[in-house]
Amino acid sequence: MVFVDSYPKTSKLVRSEFIVAFVALGIGALFGIIQSLHRTGVFRGFVSSADYYTILTGHGVLLALVFTTFFIAGLFTWAVANSLERELPHRIAWSAFWVMLTGTVLAAVSIIGGIVGAPSVLGHDLEADVLFTFYAPMKAHPAFYIGAALIIVGSWIAGLAYFKALWEWRSENPDERIPLQTFMVLTTMLMWYVSTIGVAVEVVAFLIPWSLGLIQNVDPLLTRTLFWYFGHPVVYFWLMPAYLVWYTILPKLAGGRLFSDPLARVVFVAFLLLSTPVGFHHQYTDPGIPSGYKFIAMTNTMFLLLPSLLTAFTVVASVEHGARQRGAKGYLSWLRDLPWGKPAFAGCMLAGLMFAAGGFSGMINAGMNINYLIHNTIWVPGHFHLTVGTAFALTAMAISYWLVPQITGKKLRQRSLASVQPYVWFVGMAIMSNAMHRAGLAGIPRRTAEPTYDEFAFEGVAGTVGEMRLQIAIGGFLLFVGAAMFLIVMADTLLARRGGTLSVNGNIPEPLSGADHSPRILDNYKLWTAIALLLIVIAYGPPLASMVADGLFAPGSPPIPV
Ligand code: HAS
Ligand code: CU
């Protein structure tokens, strides 16, 4: 049975979540091409350099916050219903959707208000050019912060729907192991609840009252710290859904089975434990945080590489198993016997391959002393376009080719366009991101409308700055084309009539080493959440205490000695 026929109500919700995600992707991609042409000096006719920062805010918010959150909500909704074999609690899940959508509209209106010169609302100019890392001292219209808060609150409500589905399932299946897909969703949501506390306090206690004029000062260090407390784990909120796809669906697309269910559970538990007590690796250059605590964050970050390295081995082993099931031989020649022409498979594999490179640039970022070389340069956008911009985004697009037919009952249209699309994205990203990393090493700053500084010569180690700029522009253009190709396939499929029987289904084959090999303690959420909170208290307690000791709103505080 096709998913849409078994669970029509849940399918409708997943479709709505995906449609919002795709609209955000379209507008975000348009902003992307505008700014990549602008900052490289190739074409500056679309917006003024002052408006560049508003476009950049729109690009980051729509892609990194709206596209991701709505797509993940859709994927998780599908995964929980699919693996627990039931419709999701209807009312809770839909109220999550509407709260998130209201938040998105508020944030989007305040960003776009800044470009079109909207009149002031509530006594404040309607504008938000605070970038997607919206901490003080830059200030946006209150509507932007209220919108951001609603997106987060909506995602909390969505999590409630997944947990409620689990409790219903549990009362009927008291002794069974939590199915792997649901386990992954719930572990991700627990990590998300723990980590969003930081941004919720930042926005509700400080930024909203400050933007409304109710308080005059905020402490930039305190609000930045609260932001990055959330700002690192949010990257795993994007990565873990991609891992859910790579662990549970990709092996099937390769014609095989997942190698190990227990290992997959260990990986997700490791993320729950370690995602949050590392946020200071975004603040190595901030004064007011003792070096010892930056060092703790660095050490935790290096441990946090482990779940991803485990993933690389397990996922590649599972795909190899798939290839061998299809008769492939040889040490490496099995790679040839994989379905590279199928867009869902090819997209996930290319996303994984690119994430290997993104992971390596992440390790460089994480080193406390090497970080000083690349911090605030365009190297950092180079890093995150490989991670969130490919590991997440390309996986999301690829798996849509497989999932959208199942939640609509319609066959995928424009198949040939779909099968080239992941390659266009991969090539565009390879060109753009490589040049960004190199340009960062030459010292070219990020978040800058005109980093071309005619009187100042940046020196590249190899090649010239002009050549790097051109590559960033060409890569950015290819990415825009890749996004457009994806959206054409999706629009055509969603608008088509239903006809014929589908050849895809959501049945996930049993792993080679199944849940019965997993120690039961891995499913003990209370234990893992308690340890996660303890690690956070150790990593954040004393530095946060010293930041608030001199008054909540007073900027600056002496670092405590270690
Ligand atoms: Fe990061 C900055 C460190 C992972 C996103 N990161 C950012 C920012 C973003 C971001 C958005 O320590 C910028 C924020 C801003 O605006 O300022 N990051 C890391 C580390 C990891 C890492 C150590 N980042 C991510 C992921 C992201 C993401 C994931 C989004 C989804 N990052 C940093 C640091 C900074 C930073 C510093 C601050 C920089 C600064 O100074 O501002 C690690 O988690 C990476 C581990 C990954 C691996 C790779 C494993 C390989 C796998 C591939 C499997 C292959 C397959 C296919 C399946 C070790 C899993 C095979 C195919 C075949 C053909 C065989
Ligand atoms: Cu980080």
Task: Characterise this structure.
The radius of gyration is 23 Å and the shape is globular. It is 68% helix and 0% strand. The chain has a domain at 1-176. It has helices spanning 3-6, 8-39, 52-84, 90-116, 142-172, 180-211, 220-231, 233-248, 250-253, 261-274, 291-325, 343-366, 368-374, 379-408, 415-441, 465-495, 525-549. The model has no long low-confidence stretch (mean pLDDT 95). The N and C termini lie far apart (61 Å). The protein has 17 helices and no strands. It is an all-alpha fold and 562 residues long. Residues 133, 235, 238-239, 246, 281-282, 301, 304-305, 308-309, 311-312, 315-316, 349, 352-353, 355-356, 359, 362-363, 365-366, 371, 375, 380, 383-384, 387-388, 391-392 line the site of heme-as. This is Cytochrome C oxidase subunit I. InterPro entries: Ba3-like_Oxidase_I (IPR033943), Cyt_c_oxase-like_su1_dom (IPR023616), Cyt_c_oxase-like_su1_sf (IPR036927), Cyt_C_Oxase_1 (IPR000883), Cyt_c_Oxase_su1_BS (IPR023615).
Helix and strand topology:
Blueprint (H helix, E strand, L loop, with lengths): L2 H4 L1 H32 L12 H33 L5 H27 L25 H31 L7 H32 L8 H12 L1 H16 L1 H4 L7 H14 L16 H35 L17 H24 L1 H7 L4 H30 L6 H27 L23 H31 L29 H25 L13
Helix pairs in contact: 2-3, 2-4, 2-16, 3-4, 3-5, 3-6, 3-14, 4-5, 5-6, 6-7, 6-8, 6-10, 6-17, 8-14, 10-11, 10-17, 11-12, 12-14, 12-15, 14-15, 14-16, 15-16
The protein binds heme-as (HAS) and copper (II) ion.
Heme-as (HAS) binds next to helix 8, helix 11, helix 12 and helix 14.
